[in-house]
Amino acid sequence: MNAIILFLNLGTSEIVLILFVVMLLFGANKIPELAKGLGKGMREFKDATNGIQREIQDSARKMEQEAKKITQDATKDITDDPGKQ
């Protein structure tokens, strides 16, 4: 959070003003609901990102296993019948 505030170069007065405007627009009762919804959205995004990353890693592992099997089969074929070369 601090990195975001530093990046935007916001001071204390600007943050207080933003919070005041949010309170005026949404009211004190809606802010917890908005924060909860934002948290759920962030969690879903993180889960989706992790799921995609897992799928990519699984695909890479499968490709490595297939390549290793092909290499082993080719090596076996060469050693079984050296006259085929």
Average pLDDT value? 84
CA radius of gyration is 28 Å
Strand content: under 5%
The major beta sheet can be summarized as:
none
- The SSE string, one letter per element, is HHH
Q: Given the helix and strand composition, which structural class is it?
A: mainly alpha
Oligomer: single chain
Whole-number total of structural domains = 1
Number of strands: 0
Helix content: over 70%
Outline the structure in words:
- By secondary structure, the chain is mostly helical.
- It has one domain (2-80).
- It has 3 helices and no strands.
- The chain has helices at 2-8, 12-26, 30-80.
- The longest helix is centred in the middle third of the chain and has 51 residues, at 30-80.
- The radius of gyration is 28 Å and the shape is rod-shaped.
- The model has no long low-confidence stretch (mean pLDDT 84).
Question: Which secondary structure elements does this structure contain, and how are they paired or packed?
Answer:
Elements: H1 2-8, H2 12-26, H3 30-80
Keywords:
85 residues; 86% helix; 0% strand; rod-shaped
What's a concise summary of this model?
With 85 residues, the protein is mainly alpha-helical. The protein has three helices and no strands. The protein has one domain.
